[in-house]
Amino acid sequence: MNKIVIFGVGLIGGSFARALKKAGAVRTVVGMGRSQASLERARELGIIDVIGGSGEAGMAEALAGADLVLLAAPVAQTERILAAIAPHLQPGTVVSDAGSTKSDVVESARRALGGKVAQFVPGHPIAGRETNGPDAAIDHLYVGKKTVLTALAENADADIERVAAAWRACGAVIHRLTPQEHDKVFAAVSHLPHLLAFALVDDIANKPHADLLFQYAASGFRDFTRIAGSSPEMWRDISLANQPALLTELDAYLAQLTRMRASLAACDGVAIEGVYSTAQHARQQWIEAIEAAEAPQAQDKAE
Description:
With 303 residues, the chain is an alpha/beta fold. The protein has 2 domains: 3-177, Rossmann fold; 182-265, 6-phosphogluconate dehydrogenase C-terminal like domain (6-phosphogluconate dehydrogenase C-terminal fold, Orthogonal Bundle), CATH 1.10.3660. The protein has 12 helices and 9 strands. The protein has helices at 11-22, 36-44, 55-63, 78-85, 103-113, 157-169, 179-205, 210-216, 219-225, 232-241, 243-265, 269-293, and strands at residues 3-7, 28-32, 50-51, 68-71, 94-97, 120-121, 123-125, 146-149, 173-176. A 6-stranded parallel β-sheet has the order 3-2-1-4-5-6, with helices on one face. β1 (3-7), α1 (11-22) and β2 (28-32) form a beta-alpha-beta unit. α4 (78-85) packs parallel to α5 (103-113) and α7 (179-205) crosses α11 (243-265).
């Protein structure tokens, strides 16, 4: 690609740029975003080559001749960014995103882009860390990791392939889901765990003896709550954007907790051990599957 434009030059967008540069897959990276300090830091680190200008003229110049535009900003900003892009979006430019929810993103794209929505190919890289900002960006974040594309019926095959090829150049393995399938899956395995981690740390932080509790919190607590170090703004937006599916998963989890509380109150060790054993076995199988899936792959996957 000759030129890509990235909105949001932190961990996700910055790592995308670093990986493409490392692979020799792009000549020029233009950075756009709300924070001038972050953009300047990204340029200083070599993540981007050019800081996009502001206003209509700046947007038009940034998008001129772009092969690919990636939105790596919080999902609540999607519609605003796409609306700003729309008047300057030229034929031949493909737009994608890295948002953790997809149904709301697709609705935003249809409203903001109108007849140009065919140029928008929704995506979600399944990789991350609990650190933020340009300094968190690394060139190997996506190696062996999944990127889910939730292509629209209007998308041209060539446009889908351009997005897929960019992620492959980053080392990712491409999977395909519908937006609705995506949101149900990630409500269970990503959005709920983040909610639980934030809730647990918040609960302990608000106890009168919080300092004492944190003093003795060790590796188990650290591992369980690692993701509570993630961006509160980003996860607020994700939680609200995927509210229906997340509520469904939260209700199911609350029911599980109620059952376990009843077993504990009844001193029912058999029932408690049964849950623990099932969970241990399922986790071991999952780890083995993950290790196999993250080995180098020759072909993309369809789910």
